[in-house]
Amino acid sequence: MVVDWQKDSMGQLKATTRGGKAAPLYGSSGRRERRHSRHFRVTGRRRLVVMETACSRAGGPEGGGREDGGGAGGRGAGVWGAREPPPPGPGSGFRRLSARLGSLRPADSSSARTEIHLLFDQLISENYSEGGGGVTAEDVSALLVQACRLVHLNQEHLVSKVSQLIHHLLNRLQVIVDEQNLDFLLAYTISAFQQCSSWTHMEILQALSALLYYNGPRCQKYLPDLLGETGILVKLSDPSQSDPDRSRAAVHCMANICLSVPGQPYLDEPYRNVCFQTFLTILQSSKVSGMDDITFCMLLQNALKGLQSLLNGGKMKLTQTEQLGSLLAVLKKYMFHGLPGLNIEVPAVLYPAPLPQYDGRSPIGQEPVEMNPSKPIASKRKKAKSKQKKGHQGEELKEPPGEIGAGAASALGKLTLHEGSTLGSAYLSTPSGGPEGSGPASRDRASSYLSSSPWKRISSSESDYSDAEGGLQSKMRSYHARVRQGALACFLSTIKSIEKKVLYGYWSAFVPDMPGIGSPQSVSLMTISLKDPSPKTRACALQVLSAILDGSKQFLSVAEDTSDHKRAFTPFSVTIASSIRELHRCLLLALVAESSSQTLTQIIKCLANLVSNAPYNRLKPNLLTKVWNQIKPYIRHKDVNVRVSSLTLLGALVSAQAPLPEVQLLLQQPCSSGLSSSSGSIMSWLSPSDWRRDASYAETREESTDSSSGSSGEPCWLIRLCISVVVLPRGDPCSDSDTSGTVGNICEPSPVRLEALQVLALLVKGYFVTAQGYLMELGEVACRCMEETDPSIQLHGAKLLEELGTGLIQQHKADSTIALSQRVPVRLVVMFWTMMLNGPLPQALQNSQHPTLQASSCDALSSILPEAFSSLPNDRQILCITLLLGLNHSKNPLVKAAAARALGVYVLFSCLRQDVMFVADTANAILMSLHDKSPNVRAKAAWSLGNLTDTLIVNMEMSGQSFQEEFSGLLLLKMLRSATEASKDKDKVKSNAVRALGNLLHFLQPYHIIKPRFTETIEESIQALISTVLSEATMKVRWNACYALGNVFKNSALPLGTAPWTAQAYGALTSVVKSCKNFKVRIKSATALSVPDRREQYGSVEQYAQIWSALVTALQKSEDTTDFLEFKYCASLRTQICQALIHLLNLASGSDLLCIQETVEQSGDMVRLYILQYLKSGVEGDDTGSPQSPQERGKMLSEALGHIKGVQEPSGDTAKKAIVAYLEGILTIYTSETESCVSLL
């Protein structure tokens, strides 16, 4: 074929084949040229070479075409069909063409325009390798700037071609233009749009969109031209625009402007509002006449993408109900866009329902009103639905591989891994195709569900569309699916940008509810999950539903259906319970009907979120049983993601409001799913440890098993399953994306094993009675994991060990409800920890390459049962202490914090706390950590210091002077100074530092106090406590400070009453008892005021009167609070104040009677009322928190009366007589009322 160049009568350049017609290359019709240009680019390099060599041979259209821009005799004008040699390296073609372009100068000659045309065509058709073939962003930017400089705006064909070049290079090479070159290119592009003919606008808008991509923050000065009132994009995006293509391209540009760049300023609020309203208007508008369906779908996708970008930027706050309701309405509308067999009408605005959980009322005792949300109306009734089902039955629908849009695809990628999940991203980012043969039983169930349910899917095909359906219909289905995915991705961003309490007002608009009798099922996210032919869209809907369920515990907490409600209306609690049941039904139906592994994973994750948040203790049983039975076949699914999510669901089941009786029964079910055959191999696979050969083990294990009431005849299948997943080799070949096991490539993939270890840890935490029968086996699993090389497996093994230790401690606590005969024998616990300490635990503690493992191992070591520790061999005890003291010197703050905390646990052990050397070593280690630069280390060290000082007090009370004399006074002084300094630290450190100060000041002996070096430190310590009581610190800190002052007052060796700090200490406590907002702090301050047991400790008469008056005022204000949560402490506060007043009466001197008489005269009735309540509270069953019995309280008041009678009052005073009469009157009333109550009984 021979190609010649010539001009037509209009001066347009034509490529003419010999014997053929001349077709215009740069025609005057914008649409024709765009179509030709697209075709020209697609045909690739070969056609361009033919045209280039033809021009070379002919000397160009005007005889001036040559490679270097010279005349017809230049290089390249040679033999017909000759090809240039291939480029020598990556990017060489681009650089060669860029050099040629750079050598040109602006000219308006025909030959110059022709050469520029050809260079642009060569640049567009250049075969760029992956990564740009060595072409840098700076090279591309410089080339585009040079190209624009060569093209005058009156050369419209070249303007069109340079726009194509900008669009092509930036997209093909994934280049984001730097700010300096962007400024020039944007100015050029905007001017081109304003000056050139309309047929060039489409190419210019495409170039503009490529320039604006992730460059929104850098184009601030051009925003008025683009987004102002008369801005280009605002005008073109108007739905009434006559050119749909230009409208779509303008919206695309606007969406690219809205993309946020981390670290860069976002769009100003006026421009954000313009974009938001534009996108919303487009979504609310109907398709205009003349717009084809594909263009309309692309327009919708661009608007949805723009909205998503605005919401993801974090600056768009949807605070107005109308604004949010309008957005949710259009999102709901397009979630179902083009869904076969469904046509719904959605109101223009969705309005929220009032939620009692979030308006300050109690969610449990409330009987809320009915929910009345805005619901869409289905336009097709039963008859129409049956016709649609019949028409679509058996259709095989196929979705093209690239169906999902960019926005939805990115949302899928972000959502594949949940926050806080331990699953490996490598396993969740690679979808695994192919259905899972989950057994005939589950398939029979699936078919029965499908036949009996209104949710029957249109197609059971594994893929979206069959290959047989091609053409426009298949293409339209693909575009419709992209719109649905875009709407769901935008909805997901909306969920993340609004508060949960706002979101749940729209619960019923998106979450299914149980349909009433004779009424159709409302459309919801589950409609998409069950009916949508695209598995990607189904997965998107399930991810959105998961996001809604995540964090819904407070909202769902009102659900209740344990009793039958027969009323004229449906309570809100029953409505929510009905919704939970319907979610269970629909998700289980979707589970058995789904064949896509990726969507299966999302269904199971959604179920796990539902199980984690629903209040099953308030619902009728059997919901969890159905989930439990349905998930079993998927535990052995061939796709690793499904296996991981199945174990996640099982973990949610055993951690939901644990322990639940329903789950307890499920754990005791017989082994199933083929697990019984592997039960024996589990034990044989575990190493032949010493504990198996120990003769005492069999006896102890038999004793433990016989006494355990939680053990039925059957072993726990879930524990055996998880152990087999962790330690057994994989028996069946699986098509996993990553099959690298940690033990010779024979074990399950790491994410599956990690999830199994998490399930074991959760099961031990929630159902220890069930797990205790496998104590030694689980301990060996933890050992096996810590011996591996994978740090994640090691870490989870240490976490399992910690949970086992914590369960043993909880079971052996003094207040445990487990009978002694049903607890794990201490001998078995000793054997368990001996195995741990002879195993990999010490090595893990010393593994400085993995500090996180060291820290977790410290936590595990701190969970040892104190009774078992004292029975360990001496060398093992020394090993534990030595390791912890050594790790306290670690340079890693995580390890140092864990070691400091573990030492704080050990110092409370009864077998260690009387060892003065251990206590001193621990004190020195803790003090060192208390000065660490890490706040977390200091917080843990302060907690341990508080525990250590508790030990000092216990030793002082039990051992007397001997321990105090042995303990170093210099170390005690050092502890006082360090604790005083720590009381000025952050609140997490301060709360325990003041606790330690109170204990240390209580521990001081007279020979300490008289030493000069102690005097100043004691004064500073007490001043630190006083300032903390009066500070604006958290209530926990102030409570601890009041408690500490009470401890100080217990030390009779301190000069309380005569020291200068006495008035300040009492002043701080009286201020708090009268005015603190927190009633717990008031209670503790009143307790501290009643500690001194001698009158002289209260100081002067004025000091005594101030304390008395403050307590009376506090009693009068004991109900003054605006916080509803504080009311439950009112009775306890009054009890403590009354107790303090009676205590003061017992110590009053003659000089103090005057202030007491004044109270009797002014507030006698109020005080009498509250003291009578205090005396009778035990009789009436009022929970006041007072430890005394009613008889003891009456005795206290009688003793106070006797003390007042024996007081010698100053001559002439009548206060004593008035007070005695007042107290006798109270006792008379109390005695008569008590006798009448006894006679009634």
TrEMBL record:
Protein name per its UniProtKB record: HEAT repeat-containing protein 6
Organism superkingdom: Eukaryota
Coiled coil: none
Residue stretches spanning the membrane: none
Bias-annotated ranges (Basic residues): 378-391
Segments of skewed composition (Basic and acidic residues): 392-401
Low complexity bias locations: 429-453
Stretches the record annotates as Disordered: 1-38, 56-93, 361-405, 425-470
Gene3D superfamilies reported in the protein's UniProt record: Leucine-rich Repeat Variant
Biased segments, Gly residues type: 70-79
Domain DUF4042: 482-663
